[in-house]
Design goal:
The chain is mostly helical. The chain has a domain of 64 residues. The chain has three helices and no strands. The longest helix has 17 residues. It is extended and about 65 Å long.
Length: 102
């Protein structure tokens, strides 16, 4: 018995300006980075990059907090992280909704 391998042809979608909530346009530098070799999360190079990201985040948020972390997640995860860090147990808040994403 033989197994045939079919490799689909490359796709070349037209360049468009995407203005919706997602997906969004990707910068050429990001596209190039996506084609770079994968780096493991324990690789010294990755750890160096994450240290640089921490320094940039501290600069943006005007903090020296050593626990400044980049967290990977959805927009909803980011909003939840913000709210959880701003509130204390027992705080009263108003939650507004506006449409599907609001």
């Amino acid at each position: 018995m033989t197994l045939e391998h079919h490799i689909p042809p490359a796709i070349h979608p037209p360049r468009r300006t995407l203005m919706g909530p997602g997906p969004s346009d990707v910068a050429p530098s990001v596209l190039a980075a996506l084609g770079a070799p994968t780096v493991g999360h324990l690789d010294p190079y990755f750890l160096k990059v994450m240290d640089e990201v921490q320094d940039m985040l501290r600069n943006i948020f005007h903090t020296t907090n050593e626990l400044t972390l980049a967290v990977s997640g959805t927009g909803s995860a980011g909003m939840e992280a913000c709210v959880v860090n701003l509130l204390e147990p027992g705080d009263k808040i108003v939650v507004c909704t506006n449409g599907v994403f609001g």
